[in-house]
Amino acid sequence: MSAEEIRVAINSDQDIVSARQKGRLMATELGFSTGDATLIATAISELARNIVSYARKGQITLKIVNGLNRQGVAVVATDDGPGIPDIRQALRDGFSTSGSLGLGLPGVRRLMDEFEITSQPGRGTTVTVKKWRP
Amino acid sequence: MEVPILKQGAFLIATFQAALSDADLNHLRMGLVQQVVKFRSRAVIVDVTAMDVMDSFASRTLREIAHMIRLRGAETVIVGIQPEVAFAMVQLGLTLEGVATALDLEEGLAYLNEKFKVTN
């Protein structure tokens, strides 16, 4: 059973666990190695945690994406939270506004192959990351 | 999900499950420190073999557990970090500085037995 798209509502810390488990399953079914599936699951965990810490609720969407001659997994983390006023600052190692470690976004960028972020203060944040199967 | 804490002589052994939520980790942190006090334990082994993801929250909680236990005069050893988990932690920029680690439970016990010269 490999649905093309899985949506996980993120409302609590328990949903973080469920999102990363679903992501790992999707990656494994797509033929990713255990190592890569772990990187994907860890990235999902960090993105879902950002939603819970900064926006309280949001959504993680897991998608199978097709490139020219490759397949991959895309993770889209969306929330209607306060948004990020200075994205460049948020992408710097060590930056945090919620008293957490502040490694979230730059770390997630290192775990995945592609990273894209859009954010509007007061409107919310969307982070899209992709990992391609080697 | 409760994390079982076993008493093994002067040591405590906490075995993490795969799907620990933040609340579970916080609960474990309190439980471990309380049990160290109750049993006058010399050391705690935290076995994370079953953990398939170690994100920033989990590794921060482990560091905090180790620091709290050190303040009680006991030591913490983290055992069983899986190779792929170690790889992801390094990519993410997570460290467990100042916390002892060992390959597995056996190695962790050997390390502590040597250090404290106790026979459990």
Mean pLDDT of chain B: 91
Largest interface: A-B, 26 and 22 residues
Strand content of chain A: 25-35%
From the 3D structure, determine the CATH topology of chain A: Heat Shock Protein 90
Strand content of chain B: 15-25%
Based on CA atoms alone, the radius of gyration of chain A comes out at: 14 Å
N-to-C order of helices and strands of chain A: EHHEEHHEE
The CATH architecture of chain A can be given as: 2-Layer Sandwich
For the largest sheet of chain B, list the strands in their spatial order. Answer: 1-2-3-4-5
Tally of helical runs of chain A: 4
Query: What is the number of domains of chain B?
Result: 1
Sheet/helix structural class of chain B: alpha/beta
Low-confidence stretches of chain A: 98-103
CATH class of chain A: Alpha Beta
Number of helices of chain B: 4
Task: Give the terminus-to-terminus CA distance of chain B.
Answer: 29 Å
CATH architecture of chain B: 2-Layer Sandwich
